[in-house]
Batch of 3 targets.
Target 1
Amino acid sequence: MIVANGVPYVVDCGDGVARQLVLADVPLPALRHIFITHQHSDHTADYGNLMWLAWAAGLRTRIDTWGPPPLDEMTRLFFQMNAADINTRIADEGRVCVLELELDGALRVQEEVPGSVTIFIAAPVEELERRLRERATESTGEIGDRITLARRQLEQAHRFRYMVRNDDVHRATEVLTAIVERELVLGTAPTGTIRVR
């Protein structure tokens, strides 16, 4: 683990990682980033448990996770396996769990987790291309691949409960906030966020 500016960055999640963080006086709700270097059990055994324990301990912010495939599938299966506990905490404690997933993972959660709410967030393809070119962090070929993927994913937007057009970040944030607040009032939204990359 690396701590920078008070934020813990966990590299790999072998057996007992949550216990070791607590012993090192790192509060689990402070967790923000998890990096998985490769898919061996001594690096992933407590990946799901670390996120779940942080959430159960009061996590109120997003956790970004990075790692090789099948990290998205591992995350989905972990939360599916623990759905009974998560749903009980949501009902009994008013807790909320927000997952930021790629397209396939989000659609699986929608299908398999009763009461889940899905939101497709996308910039218009032209805007996405402009942003990618302006950033200048990817080659022309990589940008082309990203645009092709964005077009394919956009074709699936109708399968989500909501779609937020991200052509203006301020407006998109307001719309997303309104959706989340509405779902919280309705009591249907399954507060910590897990983002899988």
Target 2
Amino acid sequence: MRLLFVKPSLVFPRTSGHDVYCYFMMKGLAELGATVSLLTASPTAPEAVEGVKLEFCGQLADDPPAHPIKLTWLQERFRSFWGTSPGQIASVRDTAERLRADVVIAFGLPALPYLAGVEKPLRVWAMADEWVYHHLTQVQLTDRTTWHHMKSAVIKGAYERLQALEGEADKVMNQLLRDLYHGNSDARAVVFWKDIYELFEKAVDRCRDAGYVVFHVVLKNS
């Protein structure tokens, strides 16, 4: 059995349910004799996969796809929401074909769009600690008493998206500061732009804090 695991990132130390679950699932399946590969959007540090026998460990390409990706209206909306590019979806498809994967396993809600381009292999969406998925699985269309879970799924999904955007903003800020300190700007320009970047960072943090308050107010009254 040839398995391809797909994830936005696999970090170390492993602090999220996704990372812990994905790591030990790969390790266990490899020890049982499966051929395991890993594909991530962000580079994977060697210590993050230490102890796992991997046939392939690579990073998603983001080049324009050579062959168009056909998505349904809902798939396109979901892809756009999570910021997944057509090139990344094509990269998963092409890597699965090249590795002759029997199963492609996507971890977490943001990884779900990656499966849209996979054709022949079995597609598996693996979850670990997803609030959204938990609530959606509780909904039964014929039972009105379960419909409140849809509202909870939307609220928690929006909050998770806010957290992800705040993390992306931190990465951009760190890169800007790195470029600033390694550039040829004079000392006054460095101090000026450093203050500007810190103001942007504070603004993003305040948006995150406001979202946290709104999230808990809505959740409490839902």
Target 3
Amino acid sequence: MTREKNLPTVDEEQSSTESNSSILVVDDNDMGRMTMPRVLSMSPWHNSNIEVCASVRSAIQTITAGFTPDFILSEMVMPGESGFDLYSWIEENKPELLDTLGFTACGDGEGRQMIDFMSRMRTKKRLIEKPFLPEEIISMMQEISADKMII
């Protein structure tokens, strides 16, 4: 098995819990939807149940249809409904999922909008700027796990 440089190793004790996790990826960009599962395949979450959605509307439908993610990794700014809208919907309808959220965003042109939104969040602020390194996503998921005591 080949590993990318600096990626955490799969700890046998943790991998059974993590591999049983459910992950929801929300990104309007084709590359983002392909990249995230690839990153997760090299992580302790390599055997997780991953649902990938191209829109917030699709993510909400997936959740309301009964998919309960342990992690939600969402692009912040998308056409139409955005990560901001997803956060608001979860806050109102599924507050137990708030601590599962992690966001990605492009650094250009989104700054003020993100700062305003992040200041209103009542949960821990988790945001990774694109382009990201795989270990940044894995680190964010480890932080979510630790906060939720999934590990």
